[in-house]
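User: I've been trying to design a sequence by hand for this structure and keep getting stuck. Would you show me what you'd pick, starting by listing the structure so we're on the same page?

Assistant: Good idea, let's start from the same input. This is the structure you sent:
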């Protein structure tokens, strides 16, 4: 769930400069222009911690497929004696799970077990006879859908599905009544969800759609439903498929559905801002993520580190390959990072921290079709997490960026804008 997808209330129901910076980053040779941009980024992160806007933050910045540089500041929590953050600190990445789920689906497209324009009812029969709301702002009254939901539409949030924590009209309330949150958060709303992806998907299929499939972009639980499609198409439980076909080959050894108890000391505390007070809602030592999830939701289920998520982006930058291991074919990556929106559909609302709205959408992430002045380039692909996390790859600038934080609401501070300004302000990054 991205920046505006969880309000504060719903979140409770991600020297080489000087000696200190060199210790954080490591003496890896880089162009002088990148040294300057990382120096600016370090100043930004230090200021956020100094001004008590956040407890800790880690950024991984990489060029092409080269190893990343790490810039970080602060600690895992505000508790006295809390450990400093670092490249391997763990963070709840919420909706930055979505691109990982999407690439798992693209693996099945590559394996000819899925087709982009295949009806999802081939895998989830409950979606065979979906209905569409007649007046979505006022009533749940519905009519039969003219077209089935497809895999493409799940990947691009054009399925007609919605979210309990975003949107207007009666649909979010109906999802709430049926305990269809999607994803994973700490709190009672999560505890009441169905116990399996199958049960979740079948229950979602009983609720009418907000729009005719393939006609409008609405941020949604689509990637959670896609997780069920993946496990049916593959014949393997969704979380196991992701672990074996995505995380393990990439080398994402610190990305978890359930954080092992012996790794709890790496997990940051998540906070929520209530007025001017920062209140802990999920501590590292007592985290809900130390327990198995009710279901491994593909829209918002994973915990990861800056080092691990950078490896995911590095795989994309390597056209599907990392460290000599091929995860996806180059043509699959090109397809995944292309504009997959159905013809005539445009993104009509910006739910991200990016000041300029992306024009396209790829497999589980937004896609900029035009250069942003003083910002990312056309072709930039990525997504965000509800607790402020950032992850994107700019192919034209050959730049990978991951930022890990954990505070709600994710739009409390202009972190994305400040990071992009630091990295792009010289125009040559």
């Amino acid at each position: 769930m991205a920046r505006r997808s969880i309000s504060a209330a719903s979140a409770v129901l991600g020297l080489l400069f000087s000696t200190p910076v060199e210790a954080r980053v490591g003496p890896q040779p880089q162009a002088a222009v990148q040294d300057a941009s990382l120096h600016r980024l370090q100043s930004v992160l230090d200021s956020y911690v100094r001004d008590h806007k956040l407890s800790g933050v880690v950024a991984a910045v990489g060029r092409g497929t080269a190893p990343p540089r790490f810039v970080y500041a602060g600690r895992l929590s505000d508790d006295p004696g809390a450990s400093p953050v670092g490249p391997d600190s763990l963070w709840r990445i919420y909706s930055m799970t979505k691109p990982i789920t999407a690439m798992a689906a693209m693996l099945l497209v590559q394996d000819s077990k899925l087709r982009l324009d295949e009806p999802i009812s081939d895998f989830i029969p409950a979606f065979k006879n979906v209905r569409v709301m007649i007046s979505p702002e006022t009533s749940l009254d519905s009519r039969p859908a003219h077209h089935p939901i497809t895999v493409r539409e799940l990947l691009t949030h054009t399925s007609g599905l919605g979210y309990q924590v975003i949107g207007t009209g009666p649909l979010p309330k109906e999802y709430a009544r049926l305990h269809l949150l999607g994803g994973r958060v700490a709190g009672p709303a999560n505890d009441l969800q169905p116990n399996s992806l199958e049960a979740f998907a079948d229950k979602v299929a009983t609720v009418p759609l907000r729009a005719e499939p393939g006609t409008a972009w609405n941020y949604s639980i689509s990637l959670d439903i896609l997780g069920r499609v993946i496990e049916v198409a593959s014949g393997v439980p969704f979380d196991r498929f992701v672990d074996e076909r995505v995380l393990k080959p990439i080398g994402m050894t610190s990305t978890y559905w359930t954080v092992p108890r012996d790794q709890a000391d790496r997990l940051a505390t998540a906070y929520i801002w209530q007025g001017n007070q920062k209140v802990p809602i999920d501590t590292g030592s007592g985290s809900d993520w130390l327990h198995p999830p009710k279901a491994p939701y593909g829209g918002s289920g994973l915990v990861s580190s800056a080092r691990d998520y950078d490896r995911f982006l590095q795989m994309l930058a390597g056209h599907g390959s990392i460290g000599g291991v091929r995860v996806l074919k180059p043509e699959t990556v090109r397809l995944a990072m292309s504009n997959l929106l159905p013809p005539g559909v445009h993104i009509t609302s910006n739910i991200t921290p990016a000041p300029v709205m992306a024009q396209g959408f790829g497999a589980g992430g937004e896609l900029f079709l035009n250069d942003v002045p003083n910002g990312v380039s056309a072709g930039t692909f990525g997504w965000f997490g509800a607790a402020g996390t950032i992850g994107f790859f700019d192919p034209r600038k050959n730049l990978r960026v991951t930022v890990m934080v954990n505070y709600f609401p994710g739009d409390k501070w202009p972190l994305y804008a400040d990071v992009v300004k630091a990295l792009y302000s010289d125009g040559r990054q």
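That's my pick for every position. To get oriented when you compare it with your attempt: The CA atoms of residues 198 and 228 lie 6 Å apart. Residues 1-33 have pLDDT under 50 and may be disordered.
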